[in-house]
Design a protein that fits this description.
By secondary structure, this protein is of the alpha+beta class. The chain has two domains: 156 residues, Dihydrodipicolinate Reductase, domain 2, CATH 3.30.360; 32 residues. It has five helices and eleven strands; from the N terminus they run βααβαββββββββααβ. The strands form three sheets. A seven-stranded mixed β-sheet has the order 6-5-1-4-3-2-11. A two-stranded antiparallel ribbon has the order 7-8. A hairpin with a 2-residue loop joins β7 and β8. α2 packs across α5. The protein is globular. It starts with a strand and ends in a 7-residue tail after the last strand.
Length: 204
Amino acid sequence: IGRPLVGYARKNNPITVPTQMLASWAKDSSPMWFQSSHDIDLMLWWFDDAPKDVVCTGVKQVLKSRYGWDTWDAMQGQLRFRNGGVATFEAAWIYPEGHPSMPDSFMSIVGEQGHIQIDRKDEAVEMSSPEGFRWPRSLLNFKVYDQWVGAFPSCISSFIDAVQDDRTPYVTAKDGWAVTAVLEAMHTAADTGERVAVSTLELA
């Protein structure tokens, strides 16, 4: 697709994720800290460019009124890259409890010569029962007999191989630091209403 120019990533979850699955700590976090880290990581890899600055905003209504939590219901942020590309990130965790997908995840890239879209809410498997309709997760991790397969197990296996072979992992500490720096800047921007520069770090 040539050089990426514009990116968009959405990762939204039902309200049961913060209030039941992550109830012990969700009130001290946010949908973007929990969900967008994966999207930011992939977007940084796609763009292969250093993050420059961000703007971000969000809404605090549902979780505050129902549970007394001072945390974001939903957030939207935009990241500018050093060479001019732009990526937008959306994260929410207040979908209705009955929503069949966890998460509703979508990503797209528009490049100089083409585009890529990934719609993860429907992973080619659908199920219905008297209890409701579901899209079972079959891409990231699932069990075949006694073995876990999918993207998550493959990443872990690759890291273990790197340790055993005494080589640099494909995903480095600097990659992880960059994701955290973008997320920190997003939350500062949401709190202040200002455009915030993303911190840089040089790692050996």
